[in-house]
Amino acid sequence: MHVGPTNSGKTHQALQALVRARTGVYAGPLRLLAHEIWKRVNTGQIDGLARTCNLLTGEEQRWVGERASHLACTVEMTPCGTELDVVVLDEIQLLADPDRGSSWMQVLLGANAQEVHVCGEDTAVGLVQRIAEECGDVVEVRRYERLTPLKMAKQSLNGDLTKIQPGDAIVAFNRNHIFQIAKQVTEKTGHATALAYGAMPPEVRNQQARIFNDPGSSLNVLVASDAIGMGLNLKIKRVIFHRMTKWNGTEVVELSPSQAKQIAGRAGRFGLHGAGEGGEV
Q1: Nearest-CA neighbor of 141 among 4, 279, 280?
Q2: Gyration radius (Cα) of the chain, Å
Q3: pTM given for the model
């Protein structure tokens, strides 16, 4: 288990084991995240080791070869029957999710791999250890600390979008709100905005992220959904929450502390800013 807060390098450590293995699968919670890992594995962006890697999600398939050694997929599409060297199961805390948790459980119990690397929050350690004990397996827990500081702003913006600055990311939980906020930010500040949300086509999302990360770009403010909270590397200096509530499919609920920390942790990503420079929320 690789556990720790966001921006602690825990997933990178697991991905190093993945690309060093002869065969392996990355299983993540979002198709955008699976697409990013697929690209990084194929292009050798992890430890400089390029591997042939296919992509499989509920909406997209990309095959670089019938005999590709690796696969990046969403958790629900994980081929548990295939014999593998390494499986990386990301965001393991979703094991407790009432809607999707069974998919994490299926991979955790059913993956036919020599090693299963699970990544996520420390809160999942006890549950995974109990499951492993019942199965007669051994769990090695590796804990990581955040690599850059993250601080809380002294006060809210109180809805004043004129205070938006380059490098800010505004997080909203409704696609209509994302488009409305982006329009208002441009009108009130003159800053052009990049967008990112779960249903966005991967090619468009990658283009928006690349332009936002470019220090010379005019798209220097990001308006996004909580999809940015799971592993997407963006050069965000400050995370601003539009609201602290979201629709869960049944009702409007407050963000849990875990969800808020996951999203806020996107600010000040290690390696994307100056030395010692952190993030703010």
Answers
A1: 4
A2: 19
A3: 0.83
Query: Which tokens go with 95?
Result: 């094991």
Could you tell me how far CA 49 lies from the centroid of its own chain?
21
Phi-psi region of 44 (alpha: psi -120 to 50; beta: other; left: phi over 0): left
pLDDT at 42: 97
38/109 Cα distance (integer angstroms): 24
Give residue 17's pLDDT band: very low, low, confident or very high (50, 70, 90): very high
Domain boundaries, the chain: 2-143, 150-280
Give me the CATH topology for the region 2-143: Rossmann fold (3.40.50)
Domain 150-280: give its CATH architecture: 3-Layer(aba) Sandwich (3.40)
Residue 191 identity: H
Residue range 221-237, pLDDT digits in tens: 999 998 787 656 788 99
Rounded-to-integer distance, Cα 268 and Cα 130, Å: 34
Max CA distance (Å), the chain:
60
Say how far apart CA 159 and CA 181 lie, in whole Å: 11
Q: For residues 133 and 178, give the distance between their C-alpha atoms in angstroms, rounded to a whole number.
A: 45
Which two three-digit tokens encode residue 130? 């109990």
